[in-house]
Amino acid sequence: MAADVDAHRGGPGEGAAPPRADASPIALFASVSRLHIVAIASLASLTFGWIFSGRYLWAAPVFAAFDWFFVNLTNRVADVAEDKQNGIRGVGFVERHARALTVLSFAVLVGSMVVGFFVLPRSMQPLRVAFHLIGLAYNYRILPGRRRFKETYFFKNTMSGVLFMLSVFAYPLCLMGWGGFAPGVGWVTVAALAAFFFPFEISYEVLYDLRDAEGDRAFGIPTYPAVHGAAVAVRIVDALIAFACVSLVGSYALGLVPWRGVVMVVAPLIQLAVYKHAHRTRRVEARDCIRLTWIGALLLFAYQLWILLRLPGV
């Protein structure tokens, strides 16, 4: 099965691009911090909070951004070897400054936890602790058998999805006091949107794994592309996107999700078109994954502009 990946991308060391040269300071910061992931998580937290409550719950996206910044930065330091194999931008900078970046990331963690203790509801503290425990177990060998979620089949993607569910869904719901929904919204709506968002998010994870298949196989990371090959991974992505779309449209048809929720079906459809083009013409590369993530963030930003301008449907 793994031969499928070789046929699609070349063998280890053969198809892997050399690490990209460190670019401008802004591009370097964006890459090292994985700013695209911070942006999409923060904007998604803001957007779903508005869908649930009809209000802007600003603390949710702010603390989601800090929490994802910590997880992303520690992940970059922990994954230097794999990132070198996969030619990820900024890996040289991360390797040279690993200790300083680790100190910075934990300083952000401690600082944001202290501030959160004073400005957030007490009920949100366990959610953030759970987020960071999962993040630490994802990046560091603190699981039984000195393992980490990153190296565990199925849980690698699933636990990353759980982090998104915590920061995008649980954070704003907690700030709402687990109630106070907007008219026409309730727990059934939340469940229906979760049934859309979770598989859609996992489809992103598998696409990133397609990008990193060579390095992951070389270092024994059991991702779907590394274990089953590119063809199976593509079918998994397609199935996840299809389920997300059918689930959301079906929930709208049943009256479980309002119009302001079902319009999100645009995002997986765009993702499908963009990634299929890349997969057919060459292979899924780092630039494709980052571009898809920024497209998702820009769609959420456009969604917020639509709300602010009070355009039809708001």
Q: Would you write up a description of this structure?
A:
Helix 3 (35-53) crosses helix 9, helix 4 (59-78) packs antiparallel against helix 7 and helix 4 (59-78) packs parallel to helix 8. The N and C termini lie far apart (48 Å). The radius of gyration is 19 Å and the shape is globular. It is an all-alpha fold. The protein has helices spanning 2-9, 25-32, 35-53, 59-78, 80-86, 91-96, 98-119, 125-139, 155-175, 187-211, 213-218, 224-228, 230-253, 259-262, 266-281, 286-308. The chain has 16 helices and no strands. It has one domain (2-308): Orthogonal Bundle (Farnesyl Diphosphate Synthase). Mean pLDDT is 91; it is low at 1-19. It is 73% helix and 0% strand.
CATH architecture: Orthogonal Bundle
The average pLDDT value, as a whole number, equals 91
Measured by DSSP, the beta-strand proportion falls in under 5%
Give me the secondary-structure category: mainly alpha
In terms of per-residue confidence, which ranges show pLDDT below 50 for 5 or more consecutive residues?
1-19
Describe the global form: globular
Assign the CATH class: Mainly Alpha
In the CATH hierarchy, the third-tier topology is known as: Farnesyl Diphosphate Synthase
Major sheet characteristics: none
Gyration radius (Cα, Å) is 19 Å
How many distinct domains?
A: 1
Tell me how many strands there are: 0
Multimeric organization: single chain
Helix content: over 70%
Distance between the termini: 48 Å
What is the H/E order?
A: HHHHHHHHHHHHHHHH
| Count of helical regions | 16
